[in-house]
Specification:
The protein has three helices and five strands. It has 135 residues and is of the alpha+beta class. Strands 2-1-5-4-3 form a five-stranded antiparallel beta sheet, sandwiched between helices. It comes from Kitasatospora gansuensis.
Length: 135
């Protein structure tokens, strides 16, 4: 487990340093628990993880309103006055979250996030917790 976390930290660093203006990178479980982080302190990563759990739940509820598809959240982007927030599905019951400054190249960020998820998606999955239904 420790070796796997070290590998993930290295890959998160690669994403953060490969896209200028990236502030925080966090991997979280669907129930809002931080799994890994880069470029942020633990308290900030935990707050982002908790907020992301609610956001992915809202996105899934909205997705279920579309007549075609499975309603699963794949990507949420929020633009605020100070920058951008990205939340991407990254394996079974896992998500990749990135906070970036206003000058970030949004296309590059999306591409690098997709590349990271494709490379290590199976490492970003979390098993269901006892009693949790598998979606």
């Amino acid at each position: 487990m420790i070796q796997q976390r070290a590998n993930m930290d290295w890959m998160l660093k690669e994403l953060a340093e490969g896209v200028p203006q990236t502030r925080h990178v966090v991997v979280l479980s669907s129930d809002g628990l931080r799994m890994a982080q880069y470029g942020t302190d633990t308290d900030t990563a935990d707050r982002l993880s908790a907020a992301c759990a609610g956001l992915q739940s809202l996105a899934t509820a909205i997705g279920s309103e579309f007549p075609h598809g499975d309603g699963r959240m794949r990507l949420v982007v929020i633009e605020t006055t100070g920058g951008f927030f990205y939340l991407m599905a990254a394996g079974a019951r896992a998500y990749l979250a990135v906070l970036a400054d206003q000058g970030v190249d949004a296309g590059l960020m999306g591409q690098r996030m997709r590349d990271l998820v494709a490379r290590i998606g199976e490492h970003l999955s979390t098993p269901p917790r006892h009693g949790e239904q598998v979606a």
